Amino acid sequence: MSVVGSGNFRRRLCAVGAAVLIDRWTPEPPNRWHPVAWFGRSMTAVEDALWSDHRLPGAVYTATGVGIGAAAGGLVRSPTVALTVALGSGSLRRTAAEIGDLLAHGNLDLARAALPALVGRDPSELDESGVAAAVVESVAENSVDATVAAIFWTLVAGAPGALAYRAINTMDAMVGHRSERHARFGYCSARLDDLANWVPARLFAAAVAVAARDRRPHAVSAVANDAPSHPSPNAGVAEAAVAGALGIELGGPLRYGDRVENRPRLGTGPRPDASAIEAANRLVDRSLIVLGITGVAAAVADLLRGRVDATDTARRQR
């Protein structure tokens, strides 16, 4: 039986629709009440107990976190509730729009001050295009991390899949970066996050290409030519697709404290400005609609095929 062919898939698809609406139209709860924040505090304690500068303790840390997430999903049982917890796109997109408004009204200092809510880079020396590029890149990457991947794993594995994925993504944010402390300990979390996002990132890029309309060839070209140079196998795909679709250039030098990275250039065109942030949000909306229509069409087609098969079986049994 195919994944789509089970009644579970159609029920999960309805749950996804409900969770997306809740995420879009309700505010995030304060951190002290948010289950993802509770998980983060728990995993900080696990890290303190297990940490050493080796991969094996990091693998135990990662397995523990995935187990906690999957077990929590099993207790919750409801894919709608689990996915509502796992989704994080609503607040991120609202923050992106607020920064875009600040830039549009010339409030560069306030835009810089708001940027750490989205990205980890140092905003202190960024000009308008640097802030706008950071926001557009975050919108692209987080459309995968905070939306498409969470939905994908909910459809695949229900509530346990949703919360296990959120656990993986949260652990990557906590220990998966290339700091001196986490270079080895966080290796397993980072690689598992890459694996969990591999298919969702490419589904998102394909949806962006469809939503890009007349710029579809540019989105495809940017993914094919520019994304392989990006240090992330998934963020590069998402960011390149959005850059190509919008006709802008992303990437370039980034500063994280004392560390400077020279990221590859993604897409061709001018550097983004405040208007690119609004355009990126609209593009993501259209892309998610494309994915939603595709999922519903697949479920309806399979339902109709199942009814035809049932009718044929009944006729043979007469």
List the helices and strands and how they pair.
Blueprint: H1 7-25, H2 35-50, H3 55-76, H4 79-86, H5 89-104, H6 108-114, H7 128-175, H8 187-211, H9 216-225, H10 235-246, E1 250-256, E2 259-266, H11 274-317
Antiparallel strand pairs: 1-2
Number of strands: 2
What does the overall shape look like?
A: globular
Mean pLDDT over the full residue set: 91
Q: How many alpha or pi helices?
A: 11
- Largest beta sheet: strand ordering: 1-2
Task: Let me know the largest β-sheet.
Answer: 2 strands, antiparallel
Secondary-structure element string: HHHHHHHHHHEEH
- Cα end-to-end separation: 25 Å
The poorly predicted ranges are: none
Rg over CA atoms: 21 Å
The helix content, as a percent range, equals over 70%
Task: Please tell me the total number of domains.
Answer: 1
- Which percent band covers the strand fraction? under 5%
Find the structural class using helix and strand composition: mainly alpha
In short:
The protein has 318 residues and is mainly alpha-helical. It contains eleven helices and two strands, in the order ααααααααααββα.
Question: How would you describe this protein?
Answer:
The chain has 318 residues and is mostly helical. The protein has one domain. The chain has 11 helices and 2 strands; from the N terminus they run H-H-H-H-H-H-H-H-H-H-E-E-H. Helix 2 (35-50) runs antiparallel to helix 3, helix 7 (128-175) packs across helix 8 (187-211) and helix 7 (128-175) runs antiparallel to helix 10 (235-246). The chain is globular. The model has no long low-confidence stretch (mean pLDDT 91).
